[in-house]
Design a protein that fits this description.
This protein has about 500 residues and is mainly beta. It has helices at about 460-470, 490-500, and strands at about 1-5, 10-15, 45-55, 60-65, 80-85, 90-95, 105-115, 120-125, 155-160, 170-175, 180-185, 195-200, 210-215, 220-225, 230-240, 240-245, 265-270, 275-280, 290-295, 305-310, 315-320, 325-335, 355, 360-365, 375, 380, 385-390, 400, 405-410, 415-425, 440-450.
């Protein structure tokens, strides 16, 4: 077990459980910190020391060459320390390897961080029972002979620990507003990897990228991504010496998300309904399956809240109250869920079509008068323009016809009162079946003789005099019999009164 602490000098201290194992498996371990012979001669002492200048940032093993003067034991250990000075004011690491007769007694101290270029000391002492043997003053030169001029030699093994190599991404899997990145761990370069960081790059819009997530290992899920955008990812590993280089980018993936909000919402009113058109929003990686339109009754909130669904624009919302003012919002739904509602539409007011005005009488056409009949039907409500249609079996007066825009025109060919039925429909909303106001009404058009009885172009006093002169007479071809019923009566007077003033104001 290795216990570590940080001191003011920035050196990481450590003490290691005694071990006879010599470092052999650590990546990059070298012997370039080994002490060369020729260290100061210290005489006959039970302990000795040797200074050295660290050439790496980590010391992992200490040793000393031992000439035992014939020692034949097999289990005796020697204590070797890595210290700040000759008396070990600070001990950074310690090992107690078994003494190797006529060889290098060496042991593991774990990984002790040191500052390259700083001087440290290897301090070693003999077993207590050897006190007085002064073996520390000799260095084994080989063979079985100890030469008094040779000296002990300290051994220091070290290596440079660095930040990890770059991980290798093995997969990037998109999710809902997220992606999960899997990777293979890199070489830790002598210091255990403590964390990994995944960073996202938004290929679609760089401003929406930069999301990061850390973790202790693979896989790591990055959240906060924009559905429908393409992303790549890189991974870095961090150990005690910092963050290593980033991995190669992953393949592009596209996370999914709820749809955006529809835009350009426009409502068109009709009878107790409205057609709501809109522009579809971004689907964000999952196809939009439906739209929901909701009404807001600005006149009476309790009468609002009607909803309607559709798969495309526009969508018909029915059940509205004619005369109330409404706005509408639209929300899209995809495989992930429902997106936010749009900004409300401009306000509209559903209405019904009302036919306005009455039909003026038609005068029987004559070549002399050239009196063509022409009148345009009118309506209010709904969405102009209107389309007019004659329905049923009752016809218009002979010689007249109804045009789609409501114009009744022609040469009235027969005197009489004609009742017929017309249907008026407002503008149909494109793409919506049945989104159209339709009103049916019955109308009566009376065809009479020309009330300009004397043919002077003015319906006035002279015509009234003729009618009065013939009043109550019966017979055919009476000039004052305007309705053609064979009698000059009050009905004819009413016809004349209706047409009174045609041509110019008439006074009697």
């Amino acid at each position: 077990m290795l216990t570590m602490a940080v001191v003011a000098s920035g050196v990481v201290l450590a003490t290691a459980t005694p071990s006879s194992a010599v470092i052999a498996s650590r990546t990059g371990v070298t012997s370039y910190d080994r002490m060369a012979p020729g260290a100061p001669y210290h005489g006959y002492f039970d302990s000795a020391w040797q200074p050295f200048t660290a050439q790496s940032n980590t010391i992992t093993a200490l040793g000393v060459t031992v000439g035992s003067l014939g020692y034949t034991g097999t289990t005796t250990t020697v204590r070797i320390r890595l210290c700040s000075d000759t008396v070990c004011t600070i001990t950074y690491g310690e090992t107690n390897p078994v003494i190797v007769n006529y060889g290098n007694s060496q042991g593991d101290i774990g990984d002790v961080a040191v500052n390259p270029g700083q001087t440290y000391y290897v301090v070693y002492s003999q077993p207590a029972w050897w006190s007085g043997h002064s073996w520390v003053t000799w260095w084994w030169a080989g063979g079985t002979t100890i030469v008094t001029s040779d000296q002990m030699q300290a051994i220091v093994l070290g290596y440079n620990r660095t930040a990890p190599d770059s991980p290798t991404i093995t997969a990037a899997t998109p999710g809902t507003g997220s992606a999960t990145v899997s990777f293979a761990a890199p070489a830790n370069n002598g210091s255990a990897i403590t964390s990994y960081r995944v960073t996202a790059t938004d290929v679609t819009s760089s401003a929406r990228g930069g999301q990061m997530q850390t973790g202790a290992g693979t896989p790591i899920t990055v959240h906060g991504l924009t559905g429908g955008d393409s992303y790549t990812f890189v991974v870095t590993a961090t150990n005690g010496f910092g963050a290593g280089p980033a991995s190669a980018p992953s393949a592009q993936v596209v996370p999914v998300g709820i749809p955006g909000a529809p835009t350009a919402v426009v409502a068109t009113p009709s009878d107790s309904a409205a057609s709501v058109a809109f522009t579809s929003p971004p689907a964000n990686g999952s196809a939009i399956t439906s739209y929901q339109v909701r009404s807001i009754d600005l006149t009476n909130a309790a009468r609002g809240g009607q909803t309607s669904k559709g798969t495309s624009s526009p969508v018909l919302v029915s059940g509205l109250t004619n005369g109330d003012t409404y706005q509408f919002t639209v929300a899209a739904t995809n495989g992930v869920g429902a997106g936010p509602a749009s900004v409300a539409s401009a306000s509209i007011t559903p209405t019904v079509i009302v036919v306005t005005g009455s039909l003026p009488m038609a005068a029987l056409y004559s070549k002399a008068d050239r009196n063509l009949y022409s009148h345009t039907l009118t309506a209010t409500g709904g969405n102009a323009p209107y389309r007019w249609t004659l329905i049923g079996s009752s016809p218009l007066p002979p010689g007249l016809k109804l045009k789609p825009r409501g114009l009744i025109t022609g040469k009235a060919a027969a005197i009489g009162s004609y009742t017929f039925t017309v249907q008026v429909a407002d503008k149909r909303t494109k793409g919506i079946s049945g989104v159209q106001n339709v009103t049916t009404t019955t109308m009566t058009l009376q065809v009479t003789k020309n009330p300009d009885i004397n043919g002077d172009g003015v319906v006035g006093c002279i015509d009234l005099g003729i009618l009065q002169a013939q009043y109550a007479m019966s017979g055919s071809n009476l000039a004052g019999d305007l309705d053609g019923n064979g009698t000059v009566d009050l009905a004819d007077l009413q016809i004349l009164s209706t047409a009174w003033g045609i041509g110019q104001p008439a006074t009697c």
